[in-house]
Structure of Tyrosinase copper-binding domain-containing protein:
Amino acid sequence: MVSFSIQVLVALLGAGAALAMPVEEKRQDAACTGPLVRKAWHTLTDTEKKSYIDAELCLMKKPSASGLRGTRTRFDEFQVAHALKTEIAHFVGQFLPFHRLFIFAHEQALRKECGYTGAQPYWEEGRDAGAFSKSILLDPVLGFGGNGVGPNKCIQDGPFANYTNSLGPGYLVQDHCIDRDINDLFSTTAAAATVERCLNTTTYLDFWPCIENGPHGAGHGGIGAQMLNPVSSPGDPIFFLHHAWLDWLWAKWQAKDPKARLTDMGGNNKGVLGGVFGGPSSPGFGAPGGPGGPGFPGGGAPPPNIPGGFTPVNLTRPNDVPEPLVIGDPGNTTTLSHLLYLYGMTENRTIAEVMDTKGVLCYVYDS
Ligand SMILES: [Cu+2]
């Protein structure tokens, strides 16, 4: 508990420092020359795939130094940092910027701490829509291994089969395998028509819920098990390629009208939680057939064939996890001044700073 409080304090101090400097001034400091180029997994060479997997395995071996609850390794720290932000990073305006910074922090850790020289790859899920079970991503040698098996749905093969997560499902601190429960029906949410519908929106207020309730659900629901848990899903390394895909979609959408869309932000800071991740009015992670949820059009009934139903377990924040704070954004509307803090996983940034991937983050996508 004590170490956790220190983490919060560090986050708050970081917030103060970030807010002390005017946003515009900080942005101009960022001269992004030679951006990293993020590529789709299926376009990587075997050597590139292997080097990414090796770097992830390296993070899984590096001891945790943060004191974040339950962590043993650097990889665990990403999972826990995500868990601690779950409530204010989903079904809110910061959904896309938060995950952009989160994936960036992971990419930086691979590069700075594990000798990785590539960029964060993304999983172009549209290629595998309706057939995740056959995706090359699940290759046992040059991929992330296959489906889970048995009552615990533990993955059986691939480079990550022997990893023991220290957190999850939800906020629980307990050892378990990386599990999967692949659902090809759910993966249809990655289909081109769903993606196109989002890309054809013209405001962030339409684009973000379209993505969060649509394509976002493909990777989470299609891979299932841990990936379907909104708190602990980064315990499966596929998470990072899934969210990089969503980030790619956001960048593509922004590039259609950069003048307007590189500053287009909005949405609620808080408010749709408590029942969001389960329960009858839940938007869930987007069911086939359309987006839904409080304030979003369409309604979002879970598909009937998810074993055990759609409600992920253990979503009640335990007493030793403080409520995450909204910093720099006093109202309930998400603005560019909103501070994204990541419990020390990377430098805290305002949303303004991460709007353009060619700013302080300095990366682009291959297409
Ligand atoms: Cu998330």
